[in-house]
Fold each of these.
Amino acid sequence: MNAEEGGLAEILAARRAKLERLRAEGVDPFPHAFPGVEPLAEVASRHADLAPGEETATQHRVAGRIAARREAGRAAFVDLVDRSGRLQVHARVDELGEAGFERLVSLDLGDLIGIDGVAIRTRRGEVSLRATAFTLLAKSLRPPPDKHHGLQDLETRLRRRELDLVANAQTRDLFVARARIIAAIRAALDGAGFVELETPVLQPIYGGALARPFTTHHNTLDRTLYLRIATELYLKRAIVGGLERVYELGKDFRNEGLSPKHNPEFTMVEWYEAYADYEDGARRLEAVLAAAAAAVPDPAVDFSGPWHRVKLRDAIRERSGIDIGELRERDALARAIEASDLEIETANATWAKLVDELLSTAVEPALQEPTFVFDYPVELSPFAKAHRSTAGYVERWEAFAGGIEIANAFSELNDPDEQRARFIAQREQAAADDEEFQPFDEAFIEALELGMPPTSGVGLGIDRLVMLLLGRSPIREVILFPAMRDR
């Protein structure tokens, strides 16, 4: 055991010894409840107009974690922290009694306590609570991170997020802000007449995107199931059923790599609107993201519209000098890429994969301002409706900001025969090239055969949006408990 481990062992032993002493004194170190608690910041703000040295008769009940403690003879000051902020507690022997005061000052940093008291402003000018009683709510058996240096190591912060939340107020603020962004998105869609649905996470056929799924087995049904990679197909079946405006905000899962902008478990919102097309979807996204940005006091990206717009073919040609419209054969496109300065691996890549690599390598990093990239080749988009004026293309856009993709949308394909043909083409392409593909979904085809109205569909990545609005990176920073490699 090294010196650091030995020091921690001594601290843990000392804290457990205090736990046993408290129990021996008849103190329950883990009581069941402490009702009537007010947020610390709310108490402080209610008494912001107190003059130095002024006391009130207003009683308050607060609770929080001990973040600091200072003794001054027969008085002590204890700083409490909760989600809302920080508040100083002024404790005195003549209020708590000798035994009560000694018990309070013997508590450890990190212990959770409840305080009953009256609001005052100290002579030094700090709004405080003068304690009339206190209750131990949870004995902390492990020390919190160092109060002076906080918790800075990224690896530890992500693996032990509870320590990060205890030590860093900005981390608590981040996840509160994330919750407000999500609430604003829900409110924007609810206000526009959308209905929030819940579709299966375990699916017999994964679909709605080109991705590798996580696979599991249901023992009772004795069948393979997949964690969903998208909610698209089930939501469109709801459109067929007549719900007309639907959305789902939840988790999707893709068995793929980790990167600064990829996590295998991520949060998406998808919405589908009958009698609308991808232009309507673009306007809807602008409105939803304006509402999301308004939920953040100082958003790092300006999402006020109208956004920049560019066609995919034009964007690739402008950034790389390669015209994908003229190079519709796989080998011709590969040769053009190999003759360029772009670092793109062409071996064994399909034409569609090469176009996607051109977009992600040459175009995406340059799209810092909110931008729609419109009109994709049909090979990249098996669920999008054929473009009404440009042969070989579909009505699809992707939205970018800060150099990353944040949303994807189609005028949804609602011709069941065309959808069947694209499923078959995807399956044949996968067999030839061993690519990720969309499995054939007969139940979805049968749903389309009932008749699906013209529909706009949009998928928005919540994690990436939070990254952009709060100016945080990588993606693991904005996911409370991200996927991590073994140590």
Note: Residues 185 and 292 are 6 Å apart (CA to CA).
Amino acid sequence: MNESTKSSKEGLPGESTRLISNDSGDTPPDKEVYLHFDLNAGVAGDMLLAALIDSGVPREPVDEALAAIGFKEKAFSLERVNKGSVSSLHLTISSEAEATGIACKTYSEGREVIQRSDLNQILKERATQTLLSLAQAEAAVHGTSVNEIHFHEVSGADTLIDIVGVLAAVMWLNPIKVSASPVCVGGGVVETRHGSLPVPAPATILLLKHIPIVGGQDHKHELATPTGASIIKNLTHQFGNLPAMHVNGIGYGAGTIDLKGKPNVVRALWGTAFPSHSDQDNRDNSKDGSIEEPLVEMRANIDDMSPELTGHLCEEFLKMGALDTWITPIIMKKGRPGTEIAVLLKDSDMAAFIEKFFSESTSFGVRWNPVHRRRILRKNEQIETQWGMIDVMVGYLDGKMMTVSPEYESCKRIAREFGIPLKKVYRETSAAWVAKQCPPKF
């Protein structure tokens, strides 16, 4: 960490599995949650984590995740401080955590710590990807490979604590969307082991490529760290203004230095989606516990685009929070074979998706139609199988179970671990669930 050291639906956005157990008595939000970060004073991993805890995320799931990677004692302490008259939490890595000897000087060392841990597989993959992004940026800047780069500016403890801690806190919140303001990167020059570097540092600005940033020439400090930038890059669906929502949690994570003219804090806000009148009427009129919601279906017909680019576009849509996306082969004018790319989204996200269509595809036009969707309530549960616990998604209508679907990532992990066909895991997981609900009568 440097001077700017700063102190929350599919587990992470895109997952629907809650990945960290919680024995504190606190319960995660049971409604669809939006999470937003104000990054007007920059971003660092410890600031993000402190802000999430200050907003109401309990420490227990965070400590549990950190214990799973080897930090058996409290890995960090929190202190209430004032930054620009704003009461906030400042996070400090404990001496016990530093003394564990857990290494993250290279990507391979950090990856090994994560992969050999007891973390849920999805959390392992997300943490590994965040660390990989950091390594790729550092390697590109220094003209070497990911496996050869050394993280000179970070210690063995703080990088892993920041990444795993933030992801665990976000998974407790289980948001359907994570957004953030443009990132303030600071200005001036920072001294490193590689000598004097401009702010933002080369690795940081590379990580923030294609992400909106603002300078801070009045603040001659490094306000965005590489670790913080990598977390935000891999966590956030979209950047911009605070989305419409009923705010339930507000938290401030403090940096170490004092900035002139504004508090050196990251602010985390989370709450439930703020429905339109028609959406509220649809929810209120639902007598069976299902939810009807207005959505937008957006499409474009394309006949001159590489399949690799098409697949990439669909991946980008999902990262942005698309509810679904699909590709349909079609025959276009003059008998040309083409592709229809479609995406299902919330109407409030239209502008961002239209821009993504034009920036990532060869289309000169995009069309859309309002649609309505009714969906049943979903609940994440687990079932005991001969191979251990497996995650399942259960659908309920009017309090009655209607469908159950084994979670792909959980089943894939079991299939790989035991060397068995994935379809066998699916089949026997479904059978175990049915047997649990309808035990045989003797």
Note: The chain has three domains: 33-273, 289-375, 377-437.
Amino acid sequence: MIETDILIVGSGIVGLALARELTLKFSDLKITILEKESEIAFHASGRNSGVLHAGFYYDANTLKAKFTVKGNKALTDYCLENGLPINQCGKVVVASQENEIEGIYELKRRGDANGVLLEIIDEKELNEIEHNAKTCAKALFSPTTSTVNPKLICKHIASNFPRNVQILFNRKFIKANNKQAITTNEKIKFKYLYNVAGLYADKIAHSFGIGRQYTVLPFKGIYLAYNDDNLIKRHIYPVPDLKNPFLGVHFTRTVNNKVKIGPTAIPAFWRENYTLKERFNLNEFLEILGCQTRLFLSNSFNFRTLALSEIKKYNRNFFINEARKLVKHLDVNNFGKYLQPGIRAQLLNKHTNQLVMDFVVEHAENSTHILNSVSPAFTTAFSFAEFVVRESEQNFN
């Protein structure tokens, strides 16, 4: 039996940020982090694009909008203060056709409401900022969008924990009863639990009787490397469909000035479906396939169109042609290998058959459950953790 004050399930960026925030506010708390893998940030936190978002995609009344600007600054400062690599290259959002220009103005309106530094520019100004980007009449320039090494940040946070924080690896959470968690290795008595288990956060929440209207619907993100570092100077993104949470295939300039395209948002068939057979789970496969079939037949949130379009991106030429719409010059022969894929733990409301657009935080008597911690969760990690602790701290004293 292990005894701890705070038990955190999951050592992704949000779990680590929560532990960090708790140590800053309560230096005497004993904190235990459970991680089912053999290392931290094994899943989404270590497999994302590394982009620190500026905060202009989100409606002003959302948690994403509330914490992205502050989170961007906090993580930027953290990297600069600790000598961690950061590429403050900025980003442009371009319109491929005339009917997307209004989307540029809508993003500017959202950014203004959220306090984001943005500028609408014309084609001449775009050429000066990013010579290879192409747009229809107008584009949006975001100077505060950056890239970092997400896994390095997570490791740095963990390596600076005080001695009252321990991370237990290769420990899978099974269930909890009366403030006692059972793992694959031991029992852990706790006073308060934070569930930040990403792809399995919904399952753990359900075991506490929380969030049963939600289920995770996984989407696979694939990236493709480009072998000419001089192709672009900044990130180039398309105008997104703001009715869904995906931003479309785009060009990313990485923290070490490499170039890649992606990600896709291909429906995955089990929660850790990184490759064709990797971590296959029959029960998950049947559950998710059933859910996807219902969504496909009903075409809720335009799922049928989205799924058919995204599956085409398994075709390398189709994938490249999507990116090609954003730039003036591109040598298809310069594309290299596929990079490490990621899985987005996208939350679905089973009652409405709609994707959940914002973060979800649910509280029980002695636990807090963070659901739908998808992009820009990495960017918001420090500011979001501050909020979550403030909301829950009165319950574990």
Note: The longest helix spans residues 63-81.
